[in-house]
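Q: I have 466 residues here and want to know how they pack in 3D. Can you give me a structure?
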Amino acid sequence: MKKGDFELTESKVAKLKPRERNYFVCDRSCPGFGVEVTPAGSKRFVVKTCITVGGVQQRQWHTLGHCGTTTVENARLEAAVLKAQVRKGEKPKTKIIAKREALRVSALLDRFYKEEIKVKVSWAGTRLVVEKLTKVTTDEDERQGKEQVRLAEKFIRPVIGDKVVKDIGTAEIASLLSKITVNTPIQANRVRGVLSRLFAKAEIWEIRTAGSSPVTVQDRAVESKRERNLSDQEIVSLGSAIHNAYVGCIVDVKTGKQKKESPYALAAVKLAILAGMRKGEIQKLRWDWVNLKEDEIRIPPRFHKGGKKSQKVRVVRLCSAVRSLLESLPRHVDNPYVIVGKLPGKALVDIQGPWERIRVAAGLAVFGKPKEEDPGLHDLRRTFASVAARLGTPELFISALLGHAAFTVTQGYARVGQDPLRDTVEEIGDRISALLSGEVDLEKENKDAKEKRKAKGKGKDAEAST
């Protein structure tokens, strides 16, 4: 590597463009130090040193870090230290290799979070805190990053965190995944995806040899298509648990003490089942998207699934129950979010915790023993659609209310100023609200339905006899 024509700075490194082949840009103030740029656009700081072995000089290259994870100045200082060690007769390459040989999975995860997902991970008691280090392009990217951290902390670090990265083989990964697959095959496949990405980075960072990933040979778990939604009786049980959570009569299984849930967390659960909203839409919901006069929520494209592709606003029609719910929620002057979190000006992050306590209280799941058939928060959205179907709502209308076809259903009614979805969502909301409040006599309904079917059958027999 020749001496450079200029001194490297952050701005100059940022302007370097990829070429057909790898190339180096050298630093004037520190000979041997520079930046390597790959055709893919990756940039890393490197330094060349020379050691004498048996009277013969040997050139060695050292990677000091990728651009973005360390500064030019820090990399330059590290290069100077390495060169000084070589002049003293030390072998820094040997030390670096030894350090990598002893690197454990926990340390690899920490680096993976910082350099790949670009988040800072910490714990506030038992709560996992994930903070962004850089601006995330979309909310979906942020959600996926947090989900990968959650899976890694729940399934990967506790099992193989103390093991040396280079010693992890296919047997360890197979054992880890098989235990998850027993009850939650979908989650097992998601963990497999995180592991695959993690060990791919270990190869790029030269912690493992190329092509040695123990994940690639692992088969994906067989997933059954998820169709879980709540029955009418389960909705009644859910309503009772939500009521108990409001008044502080729900039991936290972890502590065995009665607990009063946040009204915002309970509102999030109700929005999922009464409006068919997704978890991400609920968490990011802002008051300036809510129009109670028009009984609708208008979610900008960036904040809902499919919005990035369609570039269209998602319109959520509000039934009377949802409107009353939103009107009853306390608003904070300094917080734009509907579902308010504990931190000033922030949305509620942990909806999953309250939901797990509520579903256990409702008898929909057993604490500490998750099963694939246990209803998740997203299954409340499926329940909204299921109730609509049981009421005889046309499939196209259900799709529109869920945000799948909201811009095509009402086109034929636009000229006469009608919106058939408003009456439809009111009917669905009335039914779900009545179930949640326990106002529906399900036993009488079932009895009437049986008698109706019986009478219908007799009528058909009479017609056949004539």
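Q: Anything worth noting?
A: Residues 301 and 307 are 4 Å apart (CA to CA). The first strand starts at residue 23 and ends at 26.
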